[in-house]
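Researcher: Here's my situation. A collaborator sent me these components and asked whether they could plausibly form a single complex. I don't have experimental data yet, so a predicted model of the whole assembly would be a useful starting point for our discussion.
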Amino acid sequence: MEAFRIFIVEDDLFYGEMLRHHLSLNPDNEVHLFKTGAECLKNIYKSPALVSLDYSRPDMSGLEVMKAIKKENNEVPVVIVSGQDDISTAVRLLREGAYDYFVKDDDVKDRLWNIIKKIRENLQLKSEISYLKEEIGKKYEFRKVIKGNSPAIKNIFSLIEKATRTNISVSITGETGTGKELVAKAIHYNSPRAKYPFVAVNVSAIPTDLIESEMFGHEKGSFTGAITRKIGKFEQAQGGTIFLDEIGEMDLNMQSKLLRVLQERELTRVGGNDLVKIDVRLIVATNRNLADDVQKGRFREDLYYRLLGLPIELPPLRFRGNDILMLAKYFVDDFCAENKMPKLSISEPAQKKLMQYHFPGNVRELRAIMELAAVLTDGEQIDDKHISYTASDSPGNFLLVESTLEEYNRKIIRYYLQKYNNNVLHVAKKLDIGKSTIYRMIKENLL
Amino acid sequence: MNKHDKSYNLDKLIEFIGNDEAAVSSMVGIFLQSTPELLGNINDSLQKSDITAVGKYAHMLKPSLDIFGLDKAFELIKKIETIAKSSENHHLLPDMIRDLKAMLDRAQTDIRADYPAN
């Protein structure tokens, strides 16, 4: 750890030297003693972690020195040590930004050690936070988070890059599971706003009558149950990015309030009068066709155009070709590493099976499928039998998986057998085929 | 010489700054330098009947007497400070300050004997 630099400003040589020796007992401390405020100010560029300032200075008053220090570097904690026990002076100094105030007669050394300890912890937390923020930033380096080589996804990369350079609103559309929130985070954490918060709100998850106070906050007592003031999501995201997911689910009343906030760049908390300036970047997402909603009168046209900004349309996984295999491999590797399992490979038939599927749940579904497969397999390889689709069993979208006509036939029969409790006679009648056909298929193990 | 016979006691000082010979020696040096200065200031102020200044210098001298284990002198200077900061009994100050000087002269002689480098 870097040395903890302490400045002591003290004209009482005896007292100053005592403190200097005392604080130097901890070899991490680097203690400098100054007889005058002016000397201290000359050295303030060395940015000490703590200044202990004797209040009754001969050259400048302690208050002046403190103000001068704060002017140079507002972050430095200044502790005032005074000869006299004078409450009004103490209060004034604390109000002016002193970190603490104590009288020389008090147990100065214990108090100083405590303060040093606190400040050190504080510094450590600060450096931890900046480290973690950096880590988060790295985590969202979008080429690492959003994977793929298909032209469709490369186009998305270039759009994200464009979005990070400006403050333009971004509207993300795409089927469920295509990674809309990931894209929003990627934009935020790669933009100059990265050091401020990213706040995600799922509009459809908030009851209609609570959404305004969720988004804009409320004042104490503004409605039954509002027992304290609450800061809304927009204020939480101050300086950063707010991500409104499923914006299409917002009701018309809230839409007009949102529009107002976006236009004025300020909001009023529910039940409040004060205007709060808002500086947030807006990213919205929906899996609905908003233009369609506008036409049907379910979505305000003026809000629609304000939100549209840079539209990013995420491709469904089934249009991303070989990305499916690449992602499948990535998810299996990731799952194995996380669960300390040996690496698994994906067999040819399994790969083929994956490529044929239409993935209505997109990347999220692929991930679930691959994690399940990794659990189900016994060997070192994932086979096609480990890959099971739950969604494809529903009859509506069975055409989306490309098959031969014969396979389609089998699927249909299988589905009817399941539906009618394996009553072959009934199924044969329903499908207008001979029951022997079904029996033959069962016998040949085709079903 | 037995420790208890000495007019001073460095336990507090060592507790405060650690058992480091160089540091102790430097504090002793500062003590031997600043104590006569402050005593002189107290006397000068008394001559000029500037009792406020007497209180101020007494206040500055006070911690070092505590740290050097000069218990009697420490008690005395606390009284001097209190009186100087009050509006009564100022007539007691000359005798008290004379006593204080005598105590501190003896202490300094003892300390100088033990730390001849200073």
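Model: Some features of this prediction you could bring to your collaborator: The mean pLDDT of chain A is 86. DSSP finds 19 helices and 14 strands in chain A.
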